[in-house]
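Task card 7
Instruction: Convert sequence to structure tokens.
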Amino acid sequence: MSMFLQKSFPTLVVRTNLILVFLMIALLPHPARAQENQASGQSSNDSSANLNEQVRELRTLVEQLQKQVGDLQARVPTAQVTESVGNRPSAQGPVPAQLVVGPSQSSATSQPHGFDFLYGTTVNFLFDGYYGWNFNEPIGRVNLLRAYDVLSNAFSLNQADLVLENAADPTNGKRWGARLDLQFGQATETLQGNAANEPRPEIYRNIFQAYGTYVVPIGTGLTVDFGKWASSLGIEGNYTKDQMNYSRSFWFNFLPFYHMGARFHYQVNDKLGLNYWVTNGTQQTEPFNGYKDELFGFVLQPTKSLNWTVNYYLGQEHPDFKFVTNGPPNLPIIQGMPFEPIPNAPNGKTHIFDSYTTWNATSKLTLAGEGDYVLQRLFTSSKPSHTEGGAVYAHYQLTPKVAFAARSEYLSDDGGLFSGKTQALKEGTATFEYKFSDNFLMWGEWRRDWSNQPFFLTSTLFMLRKDQNTATVGLVWWFGGKQGAW
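Output:
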């Protein structure tokens, strides 16, 4: 029985009884008619007395039923308001953070057919801000080689995010899903602002992820995603709340942030999963050449405490056309933007070998490591440039509210693929984490970057140092219905 019928059924019953009572009254002989019919010899006084008594009883019954109808009508609006708040408790308790649009909420209850597609959708918000200090006091307050904590001596908005997700649930017969991540702030410029990769970044700048999912009923289920998604090359991710440290490593800054295309995942068993991607390129929502990049990889989990990921990525990261502002007339255009082909466009390939593992050594201690090797050629016959190195991580949960983390990494940039200069980069980070609540974290972090070459900015123009030291306080708030890592 629907919610509407459950609420309306008592009122309908009472109203039906009223109708029956009125029908009974209408069918009873009128006292005047009864007196006329009984004038032939029966006692008219007795008959009239009996009829009048029945009428009084029926009127009493009608008044009682009318009172019941009034009481029910007075209570129905209150019941509807209580139902409309869904998962919210009464006024005595706080409103929960979960914003799941489901059958218990008023929009879905009052219009079940129009809002069925929102069932199970989580609405999630995140704010990430920081204040940092660079002891070099660099010109422009710029922290070089940082992905997100890019400014010194500034109260900064790293990112503000809105994540909408309706995940596939094949175990319950729902094989499709979708996700949308909208992002704003300094991190957005890092993710989308590189014109060397993205031909028209302004179109997609605030869309970090947008993809649909379908689980094909083959074996254990083949998961297919189509759209734009965050890259899983490298162990670190976009959302600070899910990381061991507040700042990101050199390798996170160097490896791709996202891809546009189709990806496939097949879970062979509870220990082995296989991955395959075909994409427009590394950090390319729109391609700048006709080559389609590919990834081949696997995820191995021999025990519940150990997880190992291995990836090989093959791409061609050189454009075959360019947009121009001043060129010959009658050039072709893309939505009003003129472009021209690049003669003898480079066709050298990019190879990325990426491997990382996470080990939950104890209930409080987590250890992780990453190793990477990147090789790129301008042309197929060119001498390659390559970058290799790795990082190690440790995270210790001292108490439910307090944790410590550390990271150390090495990146050899032969040919300047990452930094634009051939150099050996090193980095060490120590992080203190305090949890004010389940949805509010604070980080205090000390980080030292150094190189074998003068590279880092100082307070004097063109005077460079081999190191930079920073101290940062980061604050992250988030809430929503999505559980686990984002």
